[in-house]
Design goal:
By secondary structure, this protein is α/β, with parallel strands linked by helices. It is built from 17 helices and 19 strands. The strands form 5 sheets. Strands 5-4-3-6-7 form a 5-stranded parallel sheet, with helices on both faces. Strand 3, helix 2 and strand 4 form a beta-alpha-beta unit. The N and C termini lie far apart (72 Å).
Length: 482
Amino acid sequence: MSAFAPVRPRQQSRGALFDKIWDSHVVANLGGDTDLLQADRHHMSDGGPGTVHRLIEQGLAIVDPEIHWAVIDHSPSTSPDRYTDPSLHRGNAWRSFVEYADEMREVGIKSFGVDDPRQGIQHVVGPETGLSQPGMVLVAGDSHTCLHGAMGCISWGGERSENVLLTGTVIRRRPRTMRVNVVGTMGEGLRAKDVIMYTIGQLGADSGNGYAVEYAGPVIRALPQESRFSVTALAVEMASPTGMVAPDDTTYEYLAGREFAPTGRFWDMAVEHWRTLPTDDDAVFDREETIDMSGVEPQVTWGVSPEHVIGIGDRVPDPDDAPAGKRDAYRRAIEYTGLRPGEPIMGTPIDEVFIGSCVESRISDFRVAAEIVRGHRVAPGVLAWVVSGSKLVKRQAEAEGLDRIFTEAGFEWREPSCSKCYGSNGDFVPPGKRSLSNSNRNFVGRQGTGALTHLASTPMAAAAAITGRITDVRRLIAGEPA
């Protein structure tokens, strides 16, 4: 008798995007809410080729090699000299992409090393090459794999590559479902990054714990595809294992013609199926929340959690006014960041600006930032970097002359890598220095030991680089003195 319960139809399908995809991928129920799921795509980063090599040496077979792919993103140097001086990379992961390249091809696994024209951050490369598609169950080790859910798929991190390589499946407990309806009107100078930062500030950094979150509503539907990635990238920052946006014509137009997207009649068949995925009108969620963006200002963090966020016109909060259970955390955060309760966040001096990461390092982000920077200079004493999310983004930006706008203003134009979002390649913010970053996390030490990180959108980061302080980007847009 099998130890696994047979796959059985759910007594009542609730019609949510998440439920439709999950139910269609159940291989077996393992008891209760735990299922064995078929994986459609498995992402590996720096350690991928080495892991595959070890399994093959042990005589083990890779299952469904076409679903797996690897790209080096955490450890590569961002220096333009990295192609002639490999010692600039941190560690030897880059070497495995060279040494095991033939082996990866023979097995049938796609692999993008430092010299590959498709190299970049995995969460940028996946969508832009068409490896990430609607309706998939997409898994990886990296926690920000939730970003791919903007394509209308289930995606999460935390998986061990060995398990997925050897079985093509994953074991997961089914989460509850939450829908966040974003309504209202987006004001001048706001980006999708402001939407998700404001959402986390309103609901809390633990609000998505145990939930698969679907972001919906007119504000989300109006976002371009690249902006939707900014929203789902931070789903994990509200403790959700996965964040999703239902696919629509915006998604299909973005995906059409990508390298690994379906073509010909298979494209037509895929789109026909994808159109059945969006949440039904009568779908039931375990939790519903509404976020109104009307009147919301550009957002910036003051503390050491994404939920420590305020509008640019607000003041640093007083811990005594915080919810009772969070007062100690507020005090520790303010002590670490060196801010004073009651003081305006606007005008806080900064030492560094980082524009990059999987959240906002695409061509649309760089176009917006370049318009802010055009005709200005980086403030004296400020170190400002622009790090493309991929080589494809970098080439496109250079073709449009955006790189010259940045470099003429005093920014450094760097090679693709995770870089100062995490510092895993050695790109750190020095101790005691204050950084304004468009990345995803601001916990203690995230950008380097003793580094002080403020999160904001890409145009807010560009404005801070020019003025040398946390600035309301709307003033620069309006041509006013900042």
